[in-house]
Amino acid sequence: MASRLGVGVLILAALLGSATAQAGYGEYTAAAQGMAPEGAPTSETPVPPAQTPPPPAPGLRYGFYSRSCPPAEYFIREVVAKAIRKNPGVGAGLIRMAFHDCFVQGCDASVLLDATPANPRPEKLGPPNFPSLRGFEVIDAAKALLENFCPGVVSCADVVQFAARDAAFFLSGYKVSYRLPAGRFDGRVSLENETLAFLPPPSFNLTELLDSFRAKGLDVDDLVVLSGAHTIGRAHCSSFSDRISTPPSNMDPGLATVLRGQCPANLNFTNDPTVVQDIVTPNRLDNQYYKNVLRRKVLFNSDAALLTSRQTASKVVENAVIRGRWERKFARAMVKMSLIEIKNAGNGEIRKNCRVVN
Ligand code: HEM
Ligand SMILES: *[C@@H]1O[C@H](CO)[C@@H](O)[C@H](O)[C@H]1NC(C)=O
Ligand SMILES: *[C@@H]1O[C@H](CO)[C@@H](O)[C@H](O)[C@H]1NC(C)=O
Ligand SMILES: *[C@@H]1O[C@H](CO)[C@@H](O)[C@H](O)[C@H]1NC(C)=O
Protein backbone atom coordinates (compact mmCIF):
# COMPACT_ATOMS: atom_id res chain seq x y z
CA MET A 1 0.00 0.00 0.00
CA ALA A 2 2.69 2.41 1.07
CA SER A 3 4.80 1.62 -1.97
CA ARG A 4 1.85 2.08 -4.32
CA LEU A 5 1.21 5.47 -2.79
CA GLY A 6 4.89 6.27 -3.18
CA VAL A 7 4.79 5.45 -6.88
CA GLY A 8 1.69 7.61 -7.29
CA VAL A 9 3.43 10.57 -5.70
CA LEU A 10 6.48 10.01 -7.90
CA ILE A 11 4.32 9.86 -11.04
CA LEU A 12 2.74 13.15 -10.06
CA ALA A 13 6.18 14.64 -9.51
CA ALA A 14 7.28 13.35 -12.92
CA LEU A 15 4.35 15.01 -14.64
CA LEU A 16 4.93 18.29 -12.83
CA GLY A 17 8.62 18.13 -13.65
CA SER A 18 7.81 18.19 -17.36
CA ALA A 19 7.52 21.96 -17.33
CA THR A 20 11.32 22.12 -17.45
CA ALA A 21 11.56 20.06 -20.63
CA GLN A 22 11.65 23.03 -22.98
CA ALA A 23 14.46 24.69 -21.07
CA GLY A 24 16.42 21.45 -21.31
CA TYR A 25 16.10 21.42 -25.06
CA GLY A 26 17.32 24.99 -25.44
CA GLU A 27 20.33 24.13 -23.36
CA TYR A 28 21.08 21.27 -25.74
CA THR A 29 21.02 23.50 -28.78
CA ALA A 30 23.61 25.73 -27.17
CA ALA A 31 25.76 22.77 -26.18
CA ALA A 32 25.55 21.29 -29.66
CA GLN A 33 26.54 24.55 -31.26
CA GLY A 34 29.50 24.96 -28.95
CA MET A 35 30.37 21.32 -29.40
CA ALA A 36 33.13 21.58 -31.98
CA PRO A 37 32.74 24.25 -34.61
CA GLU A 38 33.64 23.19 -38.14
CA GLY A 39 37.36 23.67 -38.75
CA ALA A 40 38.07 24.76 -35.18
CA PRO A 41 40.84 23.16 -33.15
CA THR A 42 39.52 20.08 -31.44
CA SER A 43 41.76 20.17 -28.42
CA GLU A 44 38.84 21.06 -26.18
CA THR A 45 36.94 17.89 -26.99
CA PRO A 46 36.14 16.64 -23.51
CA VAL A 47 37.79 13.43 -22.45
CA PRO A 48 35.86 10.66 -20.63
CA PRO A 49 36.15 10.75 -16.82
CA ALA A 50 38.97 8.82 -15.27
CA GLN A 51 37.04 6.89 -12.62
CA THR A 52 38.20 3.25 -12.71
CA PRO A 53 35.34 0.90 -13.55
CA PRO A 54 35.08 -2.81 -12.67
CA PRO A 55 37.16 -5.33 -14.68
CA PRO A 56 35.69 -6.01 -18.13
CA ALA A 57 35.27 -9.26 -20.07
CA PRO A 58 38.27 -11.57 -20.64
CA GLY A 59 40.66 -10.13 -23.22
CA LEU A 60 39.24 -6.61 -22.98
CA ARG A 61 41.06 -3.71 -21.35
CA TYR A 62 40.51 -0.03 -20.76
CA GLY A 63 42.86 1.99 -22.92
CA PHE A 64 43.40 -1.08 -25.08
CA TYR A 65 44.83 0.96 -27.97
CA SER A 66 46.89 3.35 -25.88
CA ARG A 67 50.13 1.82 -27.16
CA SER A 68 49.16 0.10 -30.41
CA CYS A 69 47.22 3.07 -31.79
CA PRO A 70 47.23 5.98 -29.34
CA PRO A 71 44.87 8.31 -31.22
CA ALA A 72 42.29 5.60 -31.95
CA GLU A 73 39.61 6.74 -29.50
CA TYR A 74 40.23 10.35 -30.39
CA PHE A 75 39.91 9.68 -34.14
CA ILE A 76 36.62 7.88 -33.69
CA ARG A 77 35.24 10.62 -31.46
CA GLU A 78 36.13 13.29 -34.01
CA VAL A 79 34.54 11.39 -36.88
CA VAL A 80 31.36 10.89 -34.84
CA ALA A 81 31.31 14.55 -33.77
CA LYS A 82 31.50 15.66 -37.36
CA ALA A 83 28.78 13.26 -38.49
CA ILE A 84 26.43 14.35 -35.70
CA ARG A 85 26.99 18.00 -36.47
CA LYS A 86 25.73 17.27 -39.96
CA ASN A 87 22.87 15.03 -38.85
CA PRO A 88 22.09 14.16 -35.22
CA GLY A 89 19.92 11.29 -36.46
CA VAL A 90 23.07 9.44 -37.42
CA GLY A 91 24.03 9.45 -33.74
CA ALA A 92 20.78 7.67 -32.93
CA GLY A 93 21.60 5.19 -35.66
CA LEU A 94 25.03 4.49 -34.14
CA ILE A 95 23.58 3.81 -30.70
CA ARG A 96 21.05 1.44 -32.19
CA MET A 97 23.79 -0.20 -34.25
CA ALA A 98 25.72 -1.10 -31.10
CA PHE A 99 22.63 -2.86 -29.76
CA HIS A 100 21.86 -4.68 -33.02
CA ASP A 101 25.47 -5.81 -33.31
CA CYS A 102 25.71 -7.16 -29.77
CA PHE A 103 22.42 -9.09 -29.77
CA VAL A 104 23.34 -11.10 -32.87
CA GLN A 105 26.59 -13.13 -32.72
CA GLY A 106 27.84 -10.87 -29.91
CA CYS A 107 29.56 -7.49 -30.29
CA ASP A 108 31.64 -8.53 -33.29
CA ALA A 109 30.71 -6.14 -36.12
CA SER A 110 28.74 -8.91 -37.83
CA VAL A 111 26.03 -6.31 -38.54
CA LEU A 112 28.45 -4.44 -40.80
CA LEU A 113 29.13 -7.21 -43.32
CA ASP A 114 27.76 -6.65 -46.81
CA ALA A 115 26.13 -9.35 -48.90
CA THR A 116 28.55 -11.42 -51.01
CA PRO A 117 28.03 -14.32 -53.41
CA ALA A 118 29.22 -16.63 -50.62
CA ASN A 119 26.90 -15.03 -48.06
CA PRO A 120 23.99 -13.40 -49.88
CA ARG A 121 21.83 -12.85 -46.78
CA PRO A 122 23.88 -11.23 -43.96
CA GLU A 123 22.42 -9.61 -40.80
CA LYS A 124 22.42 -6.26 -42.51
CA LEU A 125 19.53 -7.39 -44.73
CA GLY A 126 17.38 -8.72 -41.87
CA PRO A 127 14.07 -6.89 -41.30
CA PRO A 128 15.20 -5.24 -38.03
CA ASN A 129 18.18 -3.71 -39.90
CA PHE A 130 17.03 -3.10 -43.46
CA PRO A 131 16.27 -0.43 -44.43
CA SER A 132 16.15 1.29 -41.05
CA LEU A 133 19.65 0.89 -39.59
CA ARG A 134 21.88 3.87 -40.33
CA GLY A 135 25.37 5.16 -39.60
CA PHE A 136 27.39 2.65 -41.63
CA GLU A 137 29.28 5.43 -43.46
CA VAL A 138 30.43 6.86 -40.13
CA ILE A 139 31.96 3.52 -39.19
CA ASP A 140 33.61 3.34 -42.63
CA ALA A 141 35.05 6.84 -42.24
CA ALA A 142 36.47 6.11 -38.79
CA LYS A 143 37.89 2.80 -39.92
CA ALA A 144 39.51 4.38 -42.99
CA LEU A 145 41.25 6.93 -40.80
CA LEU A 146 42.42 4.21 -38.40
CA GLU A 147 43.67 1.97 -41.21
CA ASN A 148 45.62 4.86 -42.62
CA PHE A 149 47.29 5.61 -39.32
CA CYS A 150 47.65 2.18 -37.71
CA PRO A 151 46.68 -0.54 -40.19
CA GLY A 152 45.28 -3.83 -38.95
CA VAL A 153 45.07 -2.79 -35.32
CA VAL A 154 41.61 -1.52 -34.39
CA SER A 155 38.70 -3.94 -34.78
CA CYS A 156 35.45 -2.89 -36.38
CA ALA A 157 33.64 -4.31 -33.36
CA ASP A 158 35.47 -1.80 -31.15
CA VAL A 159 34.76 1.02 -33.60
CA VAL A 160 31.02 0.28 -33.38
CA GLN A 161 31.01 0.40 -29.58
CA PHE A 162 33.21 3.49 -29.38
CA ALA A 163 31.06 5.25 -31.97
CA ALA A 164 27.92 4.54 -29.93
CA ARG A 165 29.68 5.75 -26.79
CA ASP A 166 30.67 8.97 -28.52
CA ALA A 167 27.23 9.50 -30.05
CA ALA A 168 25.73 9.18 -26.57
CA PHE A 169 28.29 11.64 -25.27
CA PHE A 170 27.46 14.33 -27.81
CA LEU A 171 23.69 13.80 -27.96
CA SER A 172 23.45 13.97 -24.16
CA GLY A 173 25.32 17.28 -24.03
CA TYR A 174 28.29 15.39 -22.48
CA LYS A 175 26.21 13.97 -19.63
CA VAL A 176 26.50 10.35 -20.71
CA SER A 177 30.23 9.85 -20.49
CA TYR A 178 32.01 6.60 -19.90
CA ARG A 179 35.21 4.70 -20.45
CA LEU A 180 34.91 1.63 -22.60
CA PRO A 181 37.08 -1.49 -22.48
CA ALA A 182 38.26 -2.62 -25.92
CA GLY A 183 40.05 -5.50 -27.63
CA ARG A 184 37.03 -7.10 -29.34
CA PHE A 185 37.59 -9.23 -32.43
CA ASP A 186 35.52 -9.11 -35.60
CA GLY A 187 33.37 -12.10 -36.50
CA ARG A 188 33.18 -13.93 -39.81
CA VAL A 189 29.60 -15.13 -39.49
CA SER A 190 26.59 -12.97 -40.30
CA LEU A 191 23.18 -14.53 -40.97
CA GLU A 192 19.95 -12.74 -41.73
CA ASN A 193 17.82 -15.38 -39.99
CA GLU A 194 19.51 -14.61 -36.67
CA THR A 195 18.22 -11.03 -36.62
CA LEU A 196 14.55 -11.88 -36.09
CA ALA A 197 15.60 -14.66 -33.75
CA PHE A 198 17.46 -12.38 -31.33
CA LEU A 199 16.36 -8.77 -31.84
CA PRO A 200 13.08 -8.08 -30.04
CA PRO A 201 10.35 -6.60 -32.28
CA PRO A 202 8.37 -3.54 -31.16
CA SER A 203 5.27 -5.68 -30.60
CA PHE A 204 6.85 -7.59 -27.69
CA ASN A 205 5.29 -7.57 -24.23
CA LEU A 206 7.29 -7.38 -21.03
CA THR A 207 7.71 -11.15 -20.62
CA GLU A 208 9.04 -11.50 -24.14
CA LEU A 209 11.37 -8.51 -23.78
CA LEU A 210 12.79 -9.82 -20.53
CA ASP A 211 13.37 -13.22 -22.13
CA SER A 212 15.24 -11.73 -25.07
CA PHE A 213 17.40 -9.59 -22.80
CA ARG A 214 18.04 -12.47 -20.40
CA ALA A 215 19.20 -14.60 -23.33
CA LYS A 216 22.00 -12.05 -23.74
CA GLY A 217 22.87 -11.80 -20.06
CA LEU A 218 20.96 -8.57 -19.47
CA ASP A 219 18.45 -8.07 -16.67
CA VAL A 220 15.30 -6.12 -15.98
CA ASP A 221 17.20 -2.99 -15.01
CA ASP A 222 19.18 -3.16 -18.25
CA LEU A 223 15.93 -3.48 -20.20
CA VAL A 224 14.38 -0.43 -18.58
CA VAL A 225 17.55 1.63 -18.80
CA LEU A 226 18.53 0.74 -22.38
CA SER A 227 14.98 1.28 -23.66
CA GLY A 228 15.62 4.91 -22.74
CA ALA A 229 17.60 5.15 -25.99
CA HIS A 230 14.18 5.67 -27.58
CA THR A 231 14.49 9.27 -26.43
CA ILE A 232 16.24 10.03 -29.73
CA GLY A 233 15.96 9.13 -33.36
CA ARG A 234 13.12 8.04 -35.52
CA ALA A 235 10.86 5.17 -36.39
CA HIS A 236 9.27 4.13 -39.65
CA CYS A 237 5.49 4.17 -39.62
CA SER A 238 5.50 0.43 -40.32
CA SER A 239 7.13 -0.14 -36.92
CA PHE A 240 4.02 0.98 -35.01
CA SER A 241 1.21 1.22 -37.59
CA ASP A 242 -0.72 -1.54 -35.83
CA ARG A 243 -1.14 0.82 -32.88
CA ILE A 244 -2.58 3.86 -34.61
CA SER A 245 -5.68 2.86 -36.58
CA THR A 246 -7.46 1.82 -33.41
CA PRO A 247 -5.19 2.95 -30.56
CA PRO A 248 -4.75 0.40 -27.78
CA SER A 249 -5.55 1.45 -24.24
CA ASN A 250 -1.83 1.82 -23.52
CA MET A 251 -1.43 4.64 -26.06
CA ASP A 252 -2.41 8.28 -25.62
CA PRO A 253 -5.26 8.99 -28.07
CA GLY A 254 -3.80 12.42 -28.86
CA LEU A 255 -0.49 10.84 -29.91
CA ALA A 256 -2.38 8.33 -32.05
CA THR A 257 -4.14 11.20 -33.82
CA VAL A 258 -0.87 13.01 -34.49
CA LEU A 259 0.69 9.82 -35.85
CA ARG A 260 -2.31 9.13 -38.09
CA GLY A 261 -1.60 12.51 -39.62
CA GLN A 262 2.06 11.63 -40.21
CA CYS A 263 1.63 8.10 -41.51
CA PRO A 264 -0.28 7.20 -44.69
CA ALA A 265 -2.99 4.57 -44.28
CA ASN A 266 -1.65 2.54 -47.21
CA LEU A 267 1.93 1.84 -46.15
CA ASN A 268 4.27 -0.18 -48.28
CA PHE A 269 8.03 -0.63 -48.55
CA THR A 270 8.52 2.42 -50.78
CA ASN A 271 6.00 4.57 -48.95
CA ASP A 272 6.95 4.30 -45.28
CA PRO A 273 7.76 7.70 -43.74
CA THR A 274 9.48 8.19 -40.40
CA VAL A 275 8.44 10.08 -37.28
CA VAL A 276 10.48 11.19 -34.28
CA GLN A 277 10.40 8.92 -31.25
CA ASP A 278 10.44 11.67 -28.64
CA ILE A 279 8.22 14.56 -29.66
CA VAL A 280 9.47 16.72 -26.76
CA THR A 281 13.28 16.62 -27.21
CA PRO A 282 13.80 14.58 -30.39
CA ASN A 283 17.59 14.96 -30.66
CA ARG A 284 18.53 15.03 -27.03
CA LEU A 285 19.63 11.89 -25.20
CA ASP A 286 17.87 12.59 -21.90
CA ASN A 287 15.33 11.02 -19.56
CA GLN A 288 12.35 12.47 -21.43
CA TYR A 289 11.58 8.96 -22.69
CA TYR A 290 10.46 7.94 -19.20
CA LYS A 291 8.14 10.93 -18.91
CA ASN A 292 6.71 9.96 -22.27
CA VAL A 293 6.21 6.36 -21.11
CA LEU A 294 4.31 7.60 -18.05
CA ARG A 295 2.04 9.66 -20.30
CA ARG A 296 1.58 6.78 -22.75
CA LYS A 297 3.17 8.92 -25.44
CA VAL A 298 5.53 6.30 -26.83
CA LEU A 299 5.46 4.58 -30.19
CA PHE A 300 5.92 0.90 -29.46
CA ASN A 301 4.12 -1.71 -27.44
CA SER A 302 7.59 -2.62 -26.10
CA ASP A 303 7.88 0.90 -24.65
CA ALA A 304 4.40 0.88 -23.14
CA ALA A 305 5.13 -2.59 -21.71
CA LEU A 306 7.49 -1.05 -19.15
CA LEU A 307 4.42 0.02 -17.18
CA THR A 308 2.93 -3.46 -17.06
CA SER A 309 4.76 -4.64 -13.95
CA ARG A 310 5.18 -2.87 -10.64
CA GLN A 311 8.92 -3.41 -10.70
CA THR A 312 9.49 -1.93 -14.15
CA ALA A 313 6.94 0.85 -13.60
CA SER A 314 8.75 2.05 -10.51
CA LYS A 315 12.06 1.97 -12.40
CA VAL A 316 10.43 4.09 -15.10
CA VAL A 317 9.36 6.59 -12.44
CA GLU A 318 12.83 6.70 -10.89
CA ASN A 319 14.43 7.37 -14.25
CA ALA A 320 11.83 10.04 -14.95
CA VAL A 321 12.18 11.98 -11.72
CA ILE A 322 15.66 11.54 -10.27
CA ARG A 323 17.97 13.97 -11.97
CA GLY A 324 21.11 12.43 -13.45
CA ARG A 325 20.16 8.90 -12.47
CA TRP A 326 19.28 7.60 -15.93
CA GLU A 327 22.39 9.07 -17.55
CA ARG A 328 24.64 7.22 -15.08
CA LYS A 329 22.71 3.98 -15.45
CA PHE A 330 22.67 4.22 -19.21
CA ALA A 331 26.46 4.55 -19.32
CA ARG A 332 26.86 1.45 -17.17
CA ALA A 333 24.32 -0.56 -19.18
CA MET A 334 25.96 0.38 -22.48
CA VAL A 335 29.28 -0.98 -21.19
CA LYS A 336 27.58 -4.17 -20.01
CA MET A 337 25.87 -4.61 -23.37
CA SER A 338 29.20 -4.05 -25.15
CA LEU A 339 30.62 -7.15 -23.43
CA ILE A 340 28.13 -9.66 -24.87
CA GLU A 341 29.68 -12.82 -26.39
CA ILE A 342 33.07 -11.33 -27.17
CA LYS A 343 35.12 -13.18 -29.79
CA ASN A 344 38.85 -13.87 -29.57
CA ALA A 345 41.81 -14.50 -31.88
CA GLY A 346 40.58 -18.09 -32.31
CA ASN A 347 37.15 -17.26 -33.72
CA GLY A 348 37.68 -13.68 -34.85
CA GLU A 349 39.96 -11.33 -36.74
CA ILE A 350 40.77 -7.64 -37.20
CA ARG A 351 39.03 -6.77 -40.43
CA LYS A 352 40.72 -4.42 -42.88
CA ASN A 353 37.39 -3.25 -44.29
CA CYS A 354 34.41 -3.36 -41.95
CA ARG A 355 32.10 -4.46 -44.75
CA VAL A 356 33.98 -7.65 -45.72
CA VAL A 357 35.79 -10.46 -43.96
CA ASN A 358 39.54 -10.54 -44.62
C1 HEM B 1 13.81 -3.24 -25.81
C2 HEM B 1 13.64 -3.67 -27.03
C3 HEM B 1 13.73 -2.80 -28.22
C4 HEM B 1 12.85 -2.77 -29.25
C5 HEM B 1 11.63 -3.64 -29.41
C6 HEM B 1 13.29 -1.76 -30.16
C7 HEM B 1 12.68 -1.46 -31.37
C8 HEM B 1 13.00 -0.38 -32.16
C9 HEM B 1 12.32 -0.03 -33.36
C10 HEM B 1 11.19 -0.80 -34.00
C11 HEM B 1 12.87 1.12 -33.83
C12 HEM B 1 12.47 1.91 -35.06
C13 HEM B 1 13.20 1.46 -36.28
C14 HEM B 1 12.61 2.14 -37.49
O1 HEM B 1 11.44 1.88 -37.78
O2 HEM B 1 13.30 2.94 -38.15
C15 HEM B 1 13.90 1.49 -32.91
C16 HEM B 1 14.69 2.62 -33.03
C17 HEM B 1 15.74 2.91 -32.19
N1 HEM B 1 16.21 2.11 -31.18
FE1 HEM B 1 15.29 0.51 -30.40
N2 HEM B 1 14.43 -1.18 -29.67
C18 HEM B 1 14.73 -1.78 -28.49
C19 HEM B 1 15.84 -1.53 -27.71
C20 HEM B 1 16.80 -0.61 -28.02
C21 HEM B 1 18.08 -0.51 -27.36
C22 HEM B 1 18.57 -1.45 -26.28
C23 HEM B 1 18.73 0.54 -27.92
C24 HEM B 1 20.10 1.08 -27.63
C25 HEM B 1 20.65 1.05 -26.45
C26 HEM B 1 17.84 1.10 -28.92
C27 HEM B 1 18.10 2.23 -29.65
C28 HEM B 1 17.29 2.72 -30.64
C29 HEM B 1 17.53 4.00 -31.30
C30 HEM B 1 18.59 5.01 -30.95
C31 HEM B 1 16.55 4.10 -32.29
C32 HEM B 1 16.42 5.24 -33.32
C33 HEM B 1 17.27 4.85 -34.52
C34 HEM B 1 17.37 5.88 -35.62
O3 HEM B 1 16.88 6.99 -35.49
O4 HEM B 1 17.99 5.55 -36.65
N3 HEM B 1 16.70 0.35 -28.97
N4 HEM B 1 13.97 0.56 -31.91
C1 LIG C 1 20.10 -19.68 -39.56
O1 LIG C 1 20.45 -20.39 -40.73
C2 LIG C 1 21.59 -21.23 -40.58
C3 LIG C 1 21.93 -21.92 -41.89
O2 LIG C 1 21.62 -21.11 -42.97
C4 LIG C 1 21.33 -22.27 -39.51
O3 LIG C 1 22.49 -23.06 -39.32
C5 LIG C 1 20.95 -21.59 -38.21
O4 LIG C 1 20.58 -22.56 -37.25
C6 LIG C 1 19.79 -20.63 -38.42
N1 LIG C 1 19.60 -19.90 -37.18
C7 LIG C 1 18.41 -19.61 -36.70
C8 LIG C 1 18.36 -18.86 -35.42
O5 LIG C 1 17.37 -19.90 -37.26
C1 LIG D 1 3.38 -12.11 -23.68
O1 LIG D 1 3.26 -12.78 -24.90
C2 LIG D 1 3.43 -14.19 -24.79
C3 LIG D 1 3.52 -14.75 -26.19
O2 LIG D 1 2.52 -14.23 -27.03
C4 LIG D 1 2.29 -14.76 -23.96
O3 LIG D 1 2.44 -16.15 -23.83
C5 LIG D 1 2.35 -14.09 -22.59
O4 LIG D 1 1.26 -14.54 -21.81
C6 LIG D 1 2.33 -12.60 -22.72
N1 LIG D 1 2.59 -12.04 -21.40
C7 LIG D 1 1.94 -11.02 -20.91
C8 LIG D 1 2.37 -10.55 -19.57
O5 LIG D 1 1.01 -10.49 -21.50
C1 LIG E 1 3.20 2.27 -52.36
O1 LIG E 1 2.30 3.30 -52.03
C2 LIG E 1 2.40 4.43 -52.88
C3 LIG E 1 1.49 5.51 -52.33
O2 LIG E 1 0.24 5.02 -52.04
C4 LIG E 1 2.02 4.02 -54.31
O3 LIG E 1 2.13 5.12 -55.18
C5 LIG E 1 2.97 2.91 -54.76
O4 LIG E 1 2.59 2.44 -56.03
C6 LIG E 1 2.97 1.77 -53.77
N1 LIG E 1 4.03 0.84 -54.13
C7 LIG E 1 3.86 -0.47 -54.13
C8 LIG E 1 5.06 -1.27 -54.48
O5 LIG E 1 2.80 -1.01 -53.83
Could you list some keywords that capture this structure?
Peroxidase, disulfide bond, 358 residues, disordered N terminus, signal, two-stranded antiparallel sheet, binds protoporphyrin IX containing FE, 2 domains, Peroxidase, domain 1, binds 2-acetamido-2-deoxy-beta-D-glucopyranose, Peroxidase, domain 2, mainly alpha
Question: How would you describe this protein?
Answer:
The structure is a single chain. The termini are far apart. The protein folds into two domains: 59-199, Peroxidase, domain 1 (Orthogonal Bundle), CATH 1.10.520.10; 202-335, Peroxidase, domain 2. The chain has helices at residues 2-17, 21-33, 72-86, 88-102, 136-149, 156-171, 193-198, 206-214, 220-227, 253-262, 288-294, 301-304, 310-321, 325-337; strands at 234-236, 274-276. Helix content is 44%, strand content 2%. The relative contact order is 0.17. It is built from 14 helices and two strands. The protein binds protoporphyrin IX containing FE and 2-acetamido-2-deoxy-beta-D-glucopyranose (NAG) (3 copies). Protoporphyrin IX containing FE binds at residues 89, 92-93, 95-96, 99, 132, 134, 200-202, 204, 209, 226-227, 229-230, 232-236, 239, 300, 302.
What's the CATH C level of the largest domain? Mainly Alpha
Radius of gyration: 20 Å
Order of helices and strands: HHHHHHHHHEHEHHHH
Task: Give the uncertain stretches in residue-range form.
Answer: 1-47
Helix/strand class: mainly alpha
Associated small molecules: protoporphyrin IX containing FE, 2-acetamido-2-deoxy-beta-D-glucopyranose
Number of domains: 2
> What is the tally of beta strands?
2
Shape: globular
CATH architecture of the largest domain: Orthogonal Bundle
Total of helices: 14
N- to C-terminal separation?
Answer: 61 Å
Q: Percent of residues in beta strands? A: under 5%
Helix proportion of residues, in percent?
40-55%
Q: Main beta sheet, described?
A: 2 strands, antiparallel
CATH fold assignment of the largest domain: Peroxidase, domain 1
Spatial strand order of the main sheet: 1-2
